[in-house]
Amino acid sequence: MLVIRADLVEQMVAHARRDHPDEACGILAGPDDGSDRAERFVPMENAERSPTFYRFDSMEQLKVYKEMDANDEIPVVVYHSHTATEPYPSRTDISLAQEPFAHYVLVGTSDPEQHVLRSYRIVDGEVTEEEVQVVENYMFAHTGTDDVPDHAGS
């Protein structure tokens, strides 16, 4: 499951709307501490400037990855938009997926009034859709553990 803050979703959707009818793309970076928590919005240029394909500009990608490395961050989310088709990874999207631990988020913008957001894991060409939980902050997000602290002796 992808747990993601609402403000990051809003930024991805705004970027997708801004670049429409071309596909928008970028990364949400987060700490390299196993938390799987996106913290920083990093919009990137679609070097293809295409409504059907995206590609990170190689120089921009190098700069972003060096910056993430310096900040002890990883790409928690790799996102792009689909402007006219269902937000499901295309064969090209699958073949280019190089981050086995990232969530691949697709934002569908074919409807000008309402977006569709879906998240996938793509590992070795295998696509698995996952649930998305949008939260205001990560403090009370579902963690799979008991969120209520134990009070021994109370």
Automatic annotation (TrEMBL):
Q: Which domain of life is it from?
A: Bacteria
Q: Show the Pfam families listed in the entry.
A: Prok-JAB
Q: Which residues form the MPN domain?
A: 2-126
Q: Which InterPro entries match?
A: JAB_dom_prok (IPR028090), JAMM/MPN+_dom (IPR000555), MPN (IPR037518), VirAsm_ModProt (IPR051929)
SMART domains linked: JAB_MPN (SM00232)
Which keywords appear in this protein's UniProt record, sorted alphabetically? Hydrolase, Metal-binding, Metalloprotease, Protease, Zinc
Would you indicate the residue range of the signal peptide? none
The protein, known as: Mov34/MPN/PAD-1 family protein
Q: Which organism is it from?
A: Actinomycetospora rhizophila
Q: Which CDD domains match?
A: MPN_like
